[in-house]
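User: Can you predict the 3D structure of Large ribosomal subunit protein bL33m? Sequence below.
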Amino acid sequence: MAKKAKARVILVKLLSTAGTGYNYIKARPRANPKLSMMKYDPMVKQHVLFNETKMKK
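Assistant: Sure. Here are the predicted structure tokens for Large ribosomal subunit protein bL33m:
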């Protein structure tokens, strides 16, 4: 049997650093380093840093 090829794009969860538990799901290329970006957190009503965390399968 042939091996299954790895996907070029993976889904990652971006978790708020404000500690609210709010998250976004985003796709990123597998070759890129970990993702972090400023996005809006409606729980605290302001833009905060979101860091990449692993998604549960």
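The longest strand covers residues 9-16. DSSP finds no helices and four strands in the chain.
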